[in-house]
Please model this.
Amino acid sequence: MAQPAFESLERRVPDVILLDVGMPLGEIDGGKVLARLREDPRGKRLPVLVLSGFGDHLNPDIMARLGVQVVLMKAEVTGSDVARRIDQALRS
Model:
Protein backbone atom coordinates (compact mmCIF):
# COMPACT_ATOMS: atom_id res chain seq x y z
CA MET A 1 0.00 0.00 0.00
CA ALA A 2 2.95 2.36 0.57
CA GLN A 3 4.23 1.65 -2.93
CA PRO A 4 1.98 4.30 -4.56
CA ALA A 5 3.57 6.92 -2.30
CA PHE A 6 7.04 5.98 -3.52
CA GLU A 7 5.88 5.87 -7.13
CA SER A 8 4.44 9.36 -6.65
CA LEU A 9 7.81 10.53 -5.29
CA GLU A 10 9.39 9.44 -8.57
CA ARG A 11 7.05 11.76 -10.49
CA ARG A 12 7.01 14.75 -8.16
CA VAL A 13 8.72 15.58 -4.89
CA PRO A 14 6.30 17.20 -2.43
CA ASP A 15 7.20 20.27 -0.41
CA VAL A 16 6.51 18.55 2.91
CA ILE A 17 5.26 15.20 4.19
CA LEU A 18 2.86 14.68 7.08
CA LEU A 19 3.35 11.07 8.18
CA ASP A 20 1.49 8.95 10.72
CA VAL A 21 4.20 6.55 11.89
CA GLY A 22 1.87 4.29 13.83
CA MET A 23 -0.40 3.49 10.93
CA PRO A 24 0.38 0.12 9.37
CA LEU A 25 0.45 0.24 5.58
CA GLY A 26 0.22 -3.43 4.76
CA GLU A 27 3.59 -4.93 5.54
CA ILE A 28 5.26 -1.58 6.16
CA ASP A 29 4.54 0.95 8.90
CA GLY A 30 5.12 4.69 8.86
CA GLY A 31 8.53 4.37 10.50
CA LYS A 32 9.73 2.10 7.73
CA VAL A 33 8.24 4.45 5.15
CA LEU A 34 10.27 7.27 6.69
CA ALA A 35 13.48 5.24 6.72
CA ARG A 36 12.96 4.26 3.08
CA LEU A 37 12.18 7.87 2.17
CA ARG A 38 15.50 8.99 3.67
CA GLU A 39 17.38 6.40 1.61
CA ASP A 40 16.07 8.02 -1.59
CA PRO A 41 18.08 11.06 -2.76
CA ARG A 42 14.82 12.93 -3.48
CA GLY A 43 13.57 12.36 0.05
CA LYS A 44 16.76 12.93 1.97
CA ARG A 45 16.13 16.60 2.81
CA LEU A 46 12.36 16.64 2.51
CA PRO A 47 10.68 18.21 5.58
CA VAL A 48 8.75 15.54 7.49
CA LEU A 49 6.26 16.17 10.27
CA VAL A 50 5.23 13.07 12.20
CA LEU A 51 1.68 12.72 13.46
CA SER A 52 1.05 10.05 16.06
CA GLY A 53 -1.56 8.86 18.49
CA PHE A 54 0.96 7.04 20.66
CA GLY A 55 4.07 8.85 21.82
CA ASP A 56 5.50 5.92 23.74
CA HIS A 57 6.66 4.15 20.57
CA LEU A 58 8.47 7.17 19.16
CA ASN A 59 12.17 7.16 19.90
CA PRO A 60 13.39 10.79 19.86
CA ASP A 61 16.90 9.72 18.80
CA ILE A 62 15.56 7.77 15.82
CA MET A 63 13.24 10.62 14.84
CA ALA A 64 16.14 13.08 14.96
CA ARG A 65 18.41 10.76 12.98
CA LEU A 66 15.72 10.44 10.30
CA GLY A 67 15.42 14.21 10.08
CA VAL A 68 11.94 14.59 11.53
CA GLN A 69 11.34 18.27 12.12
CA VAL A 70 8.26 18.01 14.32
CA VAL A 71 6.39 15.28 16.17
CA LEU A 72 2.73 16.10 16.72
CA MET A 73 0.55 14.11 19.10
CA LYS A 74 -2.98 13.68 17.74
CA ALA A 75 -4.61 14.22 21.13
CA GLU A 76 -2.75 17.49 21.64
CA VAL A 77 -3.20 19.29 18.31
CA THR A 78 -6.01 20.75 16.26
CA GLY A 79 -6.19 21.02 12.50
CA SER A 80 -5.11 24.65 12.83
CA ASP A 81 -2.04 23.59 14.82
CA VAL A 82 -1.09 21.08 12.13
CA ALA A 83 -1.58 23.68 9.38
CA ARG A 84 0.59 26.18 11.28
CA ARG A 85 3.39 23.63 11.75
CA ILE A 86 3.27 22.70 8.07
CA ASP A 87 3.51 26.38 7.18
CA GLN A 88 6.52 26.75 9.49
CA ALA A 89 8.22 23.73 7.91
CA LEU A 90 7.70 25.19 4.46
CA ARG A 91 9.26 28.49 5.49
CA SER A 92 12.38 26.96 7.02
Q: What stands out?
A: The chain is about 40% helix and 20% strand. The chain has a mean pLDDT of 82.
